[in-house]
Design brief:
The protein is mainly alpha-helical. Helix content is about 80%, strand content about 5%. The protein folds into two domains: about 35 residues; about 130 residues, no CATH class. It contains seven helices and two strands, in the order ααααββααα. A two-stranded antiparallel ribbon has the order 1-2. Helix 3 runs antiparallel to helix 7 and helix 5 packs parallel to helix 7. The protein starts with a helix and ends with a helix.
Length: about 180
């Protein structure tokens, strides 16, 4: 029994150390533009979703819901403020090929924060509430992302968090209200 616990603890420690090592070098390589755009985007998708998933498992549901709603409202307010629109215009005119901490293609750029926040709800729901609610949550979050892409096509920039967060939280909140 002691041997099994030691091996398990040792393996967990090794996995954490390897993950830390890979994370640090990935950030260094990304900042130095050593990766191609496709590899860099893949790393952002993987690390963004894993980071968001792990963080969401540590939070109680009410804290997670409160934080996500607050961040989504803040994102909406910031995007609709006049000075933020000026910053967007300046940044879109001075886009360079330097390192970015986001997933980007020629047509769309998704910040690492969006990738992290998009994975909060599904990971938490899957861990604590089951497959049925997870399926509905994934569908609603996906609809929110598609809605963002549609608005992005029309407007050129968008607050990336509100639609996926509000729609992704709707099944969880509905479940709470019905119980």
């Amino acid at each position: 029994m002691i041997l099994a616990k030691t091996i398990t603890s040792l393996m967990a420690s090794i996995v954490v150390l390897i993950s830390l090592y890979v994370s640090i070098f990935s950030v260094i390589f990304i900042l130095s533009n050593a990766f191609s755009t496709k590899i860099r985007n893949l790393i952002f998708i993987i690390y963004g979703s894993l980071l968001g998933s792990f963080i969401s498992l540590l939070l109680p549901t009410i804290s997670l819901v409160t934080m996500l709603i607050s961040v989504a409202i803040y994102d909406l307010i910031m995007l609709n403020s006049g000075w933020f629109n000026e910053i967007i215009k300046v940044l879109s005119q001075t886009r360079t090929a330097g390192p970015r901490m986001s997933y980007f293609s020629e047509e769309v750029e998704i910040g690492l924060g969006e990738l992290i926040f998009y994975s909060f709800i599904p990971a938490h729901v899957e861990a604590y509430y089951g497959l049925e609610l997870l399926t509905i949550t994934l569908i609603m979050t996906g609809i929110g992302v598609l809605l963002n892409l549609w608005i992005l096509d029309k407007k050129g920039f968008i607050a990336g968090l509100p639609a996926p967060i509000f729609l992704g939280l709707s099944p969880l909140i509905t479940m709470f209200l019905l119980n």
